Amino acid sequence: MPTYSLKINGTEQQLEADPAMPLLWVLRDMLGMVGTKFGCGIGQCGACTIHVDGQPMRACSIPASALVGRDITTIEGLASDTNLTALQQAWIDLDVPQCGYCQSGQLMSAAALLESKPNPSDDDIDAAMAGNYCRCGTYVRIRQAIHQAAASKTAMFYDATEKNQEDLV
Amino acid sequence: MSLHNDNKNLIETVAEKVEQQQLAESSSDGFSRRGFLKVTGIAGGGLVLAMTMPSIPSFAQTSNDLESTIELNAFVRVGSDGKIQIYAAHPDIGQGVKTALPMIVAEELGVKWEDVDVLMAPIDDRFGRQGVGGSTAIPRNFQLLREMGASAREMFIGAAADAMNVPRDELKAENSRVVHSSGKSMSFAELAKLGIQNQPVPDPGTLKFKDRSEYTILGSSDITGIDNYNLVNGNPLFGVDISIPEMKYAAYHKCPSPRGKVVSANLDDIKKLPGITDAFLVEGNGDARLLLDGVAIIGTSTWAVFNAKQQLEVEWDYTTASKDSWTDMVARAEAGQNQLGDQIVKEVGNVDNIFADAANKTIQSHYQYPFISHICLEPMNCTADYRKGENGVDDTVELWPPHQFPARAYEVAEQVFGMKKEQVQINPVTRVGGSFGRRVYGEYISEAIAISKQAGVPVKLTWTREDCMRHDFFRAGGFQTLKAALNPEGKLVAWQNHFVGITVGDRPASGARLRDVEFPMLNLDHVKGTQTTFNIGTPCGPLRAPSANATSFVVQSFIHELALAAGRDHLEFLLEIMGEPRWFEPDNDRSLNTGRAADVIKLAAEKAGWGKTLPAGQGLGLAFHFSHRAHVAEVAHVSVDANKKLKVHKVTVAVDVGPIINMSGARSQIEGSVVDGLSGMVGQKITMENGEVEQTNFHEYPVLRIPATPEIDIHFIESEYPPTGLGEPALPPLVPAVANAIYAANGDRVRHLPLTDQGYSV
Known about the structure:
The complex is a heterodimer. Chain A is an alpha+beta fold. Chain A has helices spanning 23-30, 86-93, 103-116, 122-129, 139-168, and strands spanning 3-8, 11-16, 49-52, 55-58, 71-73. In chain A, a hairpin with a 2-residue loop joins strand 1 (3-8) and strand 2 (11-16). The longest helix of chain A is centred in the C-terminal third of the chain and has 30 residues, at 139-168. Chain B is of the alpha+beta class. Chain B folds into three domains: 36-232, 2-Layer Sandwich (Aldehyde Oxidoreductase, domain 4), CATH 3.30.365.10; 239-320 and 380-462, 2-Layer Sandwich (Aldehyde Oxidoreductase, domain 4), CATH 3.30.365; 337-373 and 474-758, Aldehyde Oxidoreductase, domain 4 (2-Layer Sandwich). In chain B, strand 26 and strand 27 (692-693) form a beta hairpin. The longest helix of chain B is centred in the first third of the chain and has 28 residues, at 137-164. Chain B is globular. Chains A and B meet through helix 1, helix 2, helix 3, helix 4 and helix 5 of A and helix 7, helix 9 and helix 18 of B.
């Protein structure tokens, strides 16, 4: 079995795995990182969404060995230590999850959206989130939470700017 | 004996069992309530019950320092720091009971929600029936859990009365403290150290409960899901996330036509594939609910076994397999739909005379809806560790079943493997990734047991998406012909329904029969309900709001047709049928209450701006449907363009389920039901030919996505009736509300679902 190394959430992980094994199963069955979910196996539902170099991708459909040298981020790496991102906090505050199974994938798609568009419109949200099913139908709150996270990030930015100005004065 | 009575003897669907048990228990004398507190009696004597906590690798939070806490009753423990631990004893399948039910305990106890730790309860008789279904978790447990909270509260008050040397009736519990009328107070933490376990356990008959005006927790919008933090961080919570030592991964392949028997498979080839450690045939018992024949594949990863499954070559014996054809079912139903059924469900007055009266206007319509699948996003799975006993010791099995009734695994182990309860350990699963009525049967539990037993290793069995879609217990498709008469004043005077339904194994499939109490049959002087059934082989079962999820579409669309035929406003026509406020079924306060119904109908109409003028191509549609003791009315606002592209702009929902327990959770269930109802009606349809389901994965079975999600405007009437559940009842009215709105927008009456079959898209 070939060995290779993947950089996941900033850490290099040595693996001995079939090169064809999709990242999803490397994460779940070999590394015990089970936050990334299996939903359909054909890239239709988005439950396995992760980031490769910041871009949202479906982990069920990419052989892990193709990702050597790339930066992989999973739901486990979204928060830094215990500091939640504004998006995760909005998800909690607006009580987005019902069963919760799809929410890792929803969050990863939403996080990638906010990276590229810090203040997304409803159309931007529709375009970025349409690949993620929620069987429980939490879409109304997903939309609200993305807007709320965008607003709070903007607020944090302005707070920081004002504080910096005060410091300068 | 009428057919209806005959059918009653045959009722075996789980959803109906739930309802039956619930009715039986509600009329009992409170014995079970004493039982829960009797546990306390033992604890009150200074003994913390010796309770075996299950070993749950990766789920360590459930065994939080139990030894340093004091048990006040089956559901409540207190730590020396005053933190209250409340057991969540029911599976959270996304309906929010793991948050809502402990809130009931906390409210009566007088603890601040921040001071509560919710623990997952083990599967144990002391918690009563640990199952969920039929939107019954709130109505079944509300009184019991109030008693658990109030009983623990009285123990704190007793301890405070002793410590402060004041009469009990001068004390009250609030914000995790017991407060004296003088203002002096003691915290739960202080009281926990003062021998609270020696306080007598109150007689449940003496307990007093808070008035709704005193609530600080119940009805709150601020309390959010107990597992949210773990969910947004991707922590392991689901059955499919479980890992136990020495565990292998398993897949199971069954005949695409249910109940086909396995003859042989290319096992030698499969065993040579990378990552595969074993492969073998499993002999089932022919019961889809228990264990069907199949091929088991064991390996070192889910991917390895899924991959190997695709390379299986199996010879099946189709002799006993389902031969069902949806095309044939439709042809058969359509051929007979203008006749009445041979089974008379209800007959009052004489509908034929009314229909024959030339002064009356008679309208008839045929409605049809397809089989649909549950498509829970977490696939069916179960982890099982079967151990052979040695030296005369019995075999044992330890299970992690994501299930609506986890204790059903005892029945499955007994029925399929002849194991006694003592041989079976069932571990609770922290969350279940959707269920919608799917996880009430035990076949995936049996499969995991059978595979672990035969392989001699612990296994996590995971179904592929294709397995989940093809081997479901489907919502049965159905065909209903409605006929009604309007008198010269435009009043509904006669109603006839011929239901062509499905039986499986000669039992009516869940929801696939005409109920003699179906609205509006009890309200009229001339009613006839008949039924024709035919037997099929496709497994069917309850799906979110069984019966109601289809019948609402038929009945509430037809009422709109009648209003139009009478030249009357739909709202006014519907309210007239409702009539004076009363229980629809006399002496049944769990039945439709026409007053509550009228109130939600009027509220939804008012909030949606019923009667307002809309641009061409837009329409409002109204519908009401009663199910699961809930009164729900919805108004949909839609646009439909010339190419039948549908946009649902907004759905206004008015609900009376009594007082709301968890406001955020209640709204979530309604939002989810609206999306689910729309998702189902737009494009979902399961078909089968030669017994084989033709849809395999989401590319052939669409789920509604975020762009098609409407705005959802929710209004509650928090009446004084006892609180009831919301997991299901907001779904049924959505379907006819949208169908009626489509008619209002473009004049097209939708009588067959899904909409995509009628040329619509979203």
